[in-house]
Amino acid sequence: MRARGLTRRFGELVAVDHVDLSVPPQRVYGFLGPNGSGKSTTIRMLCGLLTPSEGEIEVLGLRVPAQAEELRRHIGYMTQKFSLFEDLTVRENLEFMAAVQSVPRERTRARIDTLVEQYHFEDRQKQLAGTMSGGQKQRLALAAAVIHEPQLLFLDEPTSAVDPESRRDFWEKLFELTDAGTTLLVSTHYMDEAERCHRLAILDRGRLVGDGTPAQMTAALEGRSFVVISERPRRVQHALSALPGVLSAAQIGASLRVLADAADVESEAAADSLRARLEDAVHKVDPKARFAPAEPNLEDVFVAATHDGRAQREAAA
User: Fold this and answer.
1) Kind plus residue range of the DSSP H or E element containing 31
2) pLDDT (tens digit, 9 = 90+) per residue, 115-161?
3) Which of 179, 242, 271, 303 falls 20 to 30 Å from 24 in CA-CA distance?
4) Burial class (CB in 10 A: 0-12, 13-18, 19+), 40
5) DSSP designation for 25
6) What is the DSSP code (8-state) at residue 73?
């Protein structure tokens, strides 16, 4: 899947702003971004549900939106809101979706039997969908989305309303799909889910501000992350937040996670100067505090990417 210059305007609002994407096959490609960043709008354009204002899209060798109708036979789509029929049973929902997706009648029964076993609905085939838990509904929605064995599956924040254990089980199902040859594009705002993706795109206010594997993106922040352990974390946080070059000082229990601006670590001398200033500010508030470099994580990546992207827009304005 490739997109070049992908743009969508709603009147004066630019929801997606000249985004370039390349999604490799048989991988989980993640869209990470806050609400309103353009993730859902981008997904709707990629699967042919929304016409771009500008740009080019090619999915599975098909031009979108010109060949969107043909594309729909080869893709699945799952949203964060449960979209099946709550007054139908598990099996009735799957039978209905098989008909909608034009699964041949002679294959429908065997395909549903397979999904019932894979998604652990053997004892719930006659249960009304509306009486199931959030995690069970989520598994049913995923089973329905893949009933026609799509080559590409779009998932728009599919785990936003379920508990952590259900989310973990759901991701195991996603990796089973990639092992079987399906390509997945998943939007999320959960950092732990982003870490599971083979590759990530970070969107902010409609712009692509980061793209790469989680390992590549965290490695690019080497030298910019620090941790402070203090008995006065709030006071230390206020002191650090006021310093030039500090993008973020987030409290996590009794510790602080500090992220520095890229401009302040461009050289070894600059990095040494920054560290000295940070340590001095910390120890003025709490002489017993411990200050040390930290391994960057995806939350650091997200904060840095969104900050750097906004800084670039402001400089260009």
Assistant:
1) strand 28-32
2) 999 999 999 999 999 999 888 999 999 999 999 999 999 998 888 76
3) 303
4) buried
5) T
6) G
Chain-centre distance for alpha carbon 11? 27
Helix axes 233-241, 268-285, angle to 10 degrees: 140
**Residue of 90, 81, 48 lying closest to 158 (CA atoms):** 81
Looking at residues 217-237, what average pLDDT do you find? 93
d(CA 70, CA 286): 64
Biggest CA-to-CA distance, the chain:
76
Q: Does domain 2-212 have CATH number 3.40.50.720?
A: no
DSSP string, 255-299: EEEEEE-GGGGSSHHHHHHHHHHHHHHHHHH-TT-EEEE----HH
Residue 252 DSSP SS3: strand
In angstroms, rounded to a whole number, what is the distance separating the alpha carbons of residues 282 and 123?
Answer: 58
Q: Where in the chain is the domain with CATH 3.30.70.100?
A: 218-316
Average pLDDT, the chain: 91
**DSSP string covering 110-154:** HHHHHHHHHTT-TT-TTSBGGGS-HHHHHHHHHHHHTTT--SEEE
b (16+ CB within 10 A) / e for 11-20 = eeebbbbebe
Q: Which CATH class is domain 218-316?
A: alpha beta
pLDDT in tens, 25-59: 999 999 998 888 999 999 999 999 999 999 999 99
